[in-house]
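C-alpha cells please, single chain.
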Amino acid sequence: MAGKFYDRRDELAFFSDKLKTLKTGEMIVLYGRRRLGKTRLIQKFIESGKASAKVLYLFVNIQGEQELKQSVARDVFEQWKEIIAIESWRDFFSYLEASSEGKKTVVVIDEFQRLKTISPGFITELQHRWDSALKNSPLMLVLVGSSIGMMRKIAITPHGALYGRKTGQMQLNPFRYVDFREVFASKSEEEKVEWYSVFGGTPYYLELASKHEKLEDAIIQEALAKQAPLREEPKNLLEFELKVIARYNSLLYAIGKGKRSLKEICDEVGIRRTTLPPYLTGLQELLGLVERRQPMFGKQNLGRYELKDNFFKFWYSFVLPHASSLEIGNTQPVLEDVKQNLPAHTGKCVEDVVRELFVLYNHDEIKGVELDFERIGGWWDRK
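Here you go.
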C-alpha cells in the first residue's frame, strides 16, 4: 500500500470543485484524528491543482516563532522562487495579498492547530487580513489539523478566533468497508472481513498490515511485538487529544469488555453515573471512537454504547488485557487468545459491515433485491 493513494474520491472532488469555481476567498478547515491520511489527501489535491493555480504548502513544526517565520520564508523561496523577509506576520500576509491578486492561489497550512501555542499572533493577523482583503481575492486557504478539539476551538465553535469565516469544513474519517476492500483486493471476501475486523479503516494501520501475506504475521509484527508500531497506538492517540487519559482508557476498556449500558460501565469503572456523560461525549464527538445505539422500536433508556473503530476493539480485547505478557516479549498466550476468540470478534464486525452495505445500497438493488427502508438497527430489551 505504501506510496499508493486509495479512495477519498468524494473528498478530492470537494477540493477540486472548490478550486475550479474559485473567484473569491475560500477558507476550508480539514481535520480528523491522526493517521487518517489528511496530508496524503492534500498532497494528492496539490498534484492535481498545480496546473490551474499557484500552490504553497506550509507545515507547522514544533518550533519557536522566529524559526517558524524563517521556515515560511524558506518554503516560499523553494516553492515559488521568490525571496521575502518576514519580520512580522503582517509582512507575510501583505505578500500573500499581493501575490494572490488576480491569480488563483492555494495555501495549505498543515498542523495548523500548533499555531495556537507557537504563534497566536499568526491567527490574529489572519483574522484581520481575511476580513479586510483576503476574503475578496481568489485565494483558497486550507487549514489542516490533527487535533480535533483544538481545530474546533479555533475555527468551528462560536468563540473561536476564525468562527464565521470558514466557507467549508471536512472531518476526515476512517475508510468504510467498501473502501477498505480496494486495499486488499486480492484477498477473498472472508479474508477481507477478517483483516478489517482487526485493523479497521485507518489508512496508516492498513499500510502497515498490507506488508504481510498472513494475518497472524501482521498482528504479531504490527500490534503485539514489543517494538510493534501499533502496540501503544490507542494510548498514544488519547494522550495526543486529551489531558488526562486514565478515565477515558478505563471507559474504552469497559466497553471493549462488553459493558454496554450506562449502569454496566459505571459499575465496571467505579464512577457515579452523573460524572460519566462528559467522558462519553469526548469519546463520541471528539474522537469518534464510541457510538450509542438504540434498539429498534425500543425505549431511549435502553441505548447501548459500542466501540466504533475495529482496531480499538481488537486492542482493548486482545492487547491491553495481556500487557504484562507482551511487555516481557511473551506473545504466545496472546496469540492463542486471538486464535480462539477472533472468529467471535469478526462475527460482530460482520454485522456492522452488513449494516453499512444496506445503508449504502438503500433505494437500490443488491443481487437483484431492491432495498427500501427508513430505519435499520438491532433489537434488544432489558434481558
